Sequence to fold (339 residues):
Amino acid sequence: MNNLFVYCEIEEGNVLDVSLELLTKGRSLANQLGCQLEAVVAGSGLKNIEKQVLPYGVDKLHVFDSEGLYPYTSLPHTAILVNLFKEEKPQICLMGATVIGRDLGPRVSSALTSGLTADCTSLEIGDHEDKKEGKTYKNLLYQIRPAFGGNIVATIVNPEHRPQMATVREGVMKKAILSADYKGKVIRHEVANYVADSDYVVSVIERHIEKAKHNLKGSPIVIAGGYGVGSRDNFNLLFDLAKVLNAEVGASRAAVDAGFADHDRQIGQTGVTVRPKLYIACGISGQIQHIAGMQESGIIISINNDPEAPINTIADYVVNGSIEEVVPKMIKFYKQNSK
Ligand SMILES: Cc1cc2nc3c(=O)[nH]c(=O)nc-3n(C[C@H](O)[C@H](O)[C@H](O)COP(=O)(O)OP(=O)(O)OC[C@H]3O[C@@H](n4cnc5c(N)ncnc54)[C@H](O)[C@@H]3O)c2cc1C
Fold:
């Protein structure tokens, strides 16, 4: 009762990384709250799913395994969470800010009148004092995210209604196994007790998934270009550098909007979140919406012709110069030194 729940998404029998990241975060929040971490998995043919989930420190895994639960459709999964939460009364529910999470989260929160904060960039536990009411609420979930066009970082709390619900994008939280043989309980539910036949009204006949064209999220080195790169042609310099360093190329939103790079390479609040070992920011000023997607990088190098560029304040190394001049030199010297 009143535990922390994570809804785990499944793709071809595998739990998505975003869900495993949330289990990791959920474990540390549950420790702070002194409650249990519970996970919910719904799909078809979920053999040995507990092996993927329990090592993240899950105390209780709720399995809903039935034909019609995979691929995801809105009504059955909503019915599962709503009915399970009515029984279990969780204090917190986390899910990925994925296509599914964006559909499922609002449906569940509106059915339970609980509220939901989408795209959180940080989650913490803390108290809240309502000065007007003269009331202090203990151990609330701080749902932290940029707001008002990124001009402020807002901490959102939900003092009265439960569960406190939040979605988080992939890559924002770190994934870490707690113990390979963590002992948790597995409960296999009778799906018909939660989902009405009429909820299966939509059936998926054919499904096409386009594979990602690059491995931006998983690459240990990311070379990101901004508006300062100047043109799509100049972006080729970054691809050349990426080739010699075995890296991936990312971009700021200004570079994407200007047509210098494709949208799926955008890094930041409305793009992907990366945490490579090395991040080379080329002609990027470093606005908060961009920083949100790369600040966890191991080492940050900024190449910028403005010594006062805000990104320089978070960079480990700053190269003051133009992209056109610095990047070809980097390619030349790296090739020379790696012979
Ligand atoms: C709701 C919202 C969401 C957003 N989401 C994102 C997001 O996900 N990702 C994101 O990146 N932005 C996002 N933005 C936009 C963000 O606010 C900035 O506008 C954007 O990050 C700026 O990109 P930039 O640094 O490439 O361009 P600029 O701010 O124009 O900076 C260009 C930099 O290049 C340098 N420069 C210029 N010429 C050269 C040269 N020849 N050589 C070297 N350096 C040079 C300049 O000194 C400057 O520092 C969002 C904004 C809003 C309102």
The first strand starts at residue 4 and ends at 8. The chain is about 25% helix and 25% strand. The chain has a mean pLDDT of 95. The two ends are 62 Å apart (CA to CA).
